[in-house]
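REQUEST ID: PR-0412
SUBMITTED BY: lab tech R.K.
PRIORITY: routine
TASK: structure prediction, single protein chain
INPUT:
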Amino acid sequence: MKTYITKSKSSLFLLAFLAFPLWAKPVAQVTEINGSVFVVKADGKTTSLKIDDHLEDKSEVMVEEGGSITLNDYYDATYHLIGGTHLKFFDRSVQLKRGKTWIQCMNGRFPLALTTANGHANYWKGEFIATFDQATSRSQFLVVNGDVEVSNVLDRNLKYTVPAGTFTLVDPEKEEGVPRAPTKVGLSSLNVALGEFKQLPEKLKEVVPTRGIASVEETPKKGEIIFIKTNRLPASVSGSAHKYFAKRAKLMAPSHAPIRYIGTSWKPVSGVRMPASYAPRAAMPIPVAPKKLDPEFEDSLKRKSFEQPKYPKELNSLIEDLKSY
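STATUS: complete
OUTPUT:
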C-alpha cells in the first residue's frame, strides 16, 4: 500500500511537470482590434485574435495590411500596432521584428524594454513610436512624452536619452550602428506619425499659437518679398536716455562770452615755448695747443733724468744687455 502511494505521488509530479509548459504566463490582453490579426504561440500554433484574448509569453502578433490592434500588458503599458507590424511579447519586454508600434507606458516602478534587430530602448512613464524597416535594417525612435534611453543592441553603454519632441535613428551603415544624436521633430511631422494610428492625444489636437511679426498683417506667399515699414528708433536714440543726453549736450556747448582777467595783466608769450624736459646742450671745449718748454729747462730735465734713473743700475744693465741682442 505504501509503495502504491509513493508511485501515485511520483506520477502526479511527473504529470504536473509535463503540463507546466501548457500553463504559460499571460503577458498581454487584446482591447481593440480591426481587420485580420494573428498570433503565433510559443508551441507554434497560429490562431486569429479577437477582443479580450490573452497572449502568453513568447507570443508573436502579426497584423495584416489595413488592420490594427491595441493590447495592454500587466505593467501599465499599451501597445498600438498598425498593418504590416510583427511584434513578439515577452515578460516586461517586446521585440519589434517589422513595422511600427506606438507604446504608451504609465509604469514608474521599473523600466520596460523594446528591442529590434539592432536597437534597444528602455522606457518608463511616457510614450514613443518605434519603427523597424527590414529592407534597410534601420530603427527609429520618436518620443512623444517622457524620456527614452536608446542604444545599440550589441553595446548598451553607448546610449542617448531621447527627450520628448525628438527622435533618433540606429542605422548599421552610419556611425557604426551608434544611435544618432536626438533631433527635434516638428508638430506637423509628429501629427503625421501619430495619424497613422488614427488616434491622437487630446492635447496634440489643440492649435499651437505661433508668434509672427507685428508689422506683417497678412500671411506672405512663397517667394514674396516683404517690406517692413517702421518708425521705431533704437533704444539708444529714443526715450528718456535720448532726452537726458540731449540736455547734457546743450549744457556742454561752447560759450562765446568774453574772458576778463582781474588783478594782473596778461600778455601772450612770444616765441615758441620749449618743453620742460628740454635743456640746452653745453658748449664743447675748444682744444688748446700744448705750450712749448724752455730749451734750457729741457736740457736740465734730461740730465736729472739720467742722474736719477728709473730702474736700479743692475736692472738697467740687464735691460741694456737685452737690447744689444
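NOTES: The CA atoms of residues 28 and 304 lie 141 Å apart.
REVIEWED BY: pending
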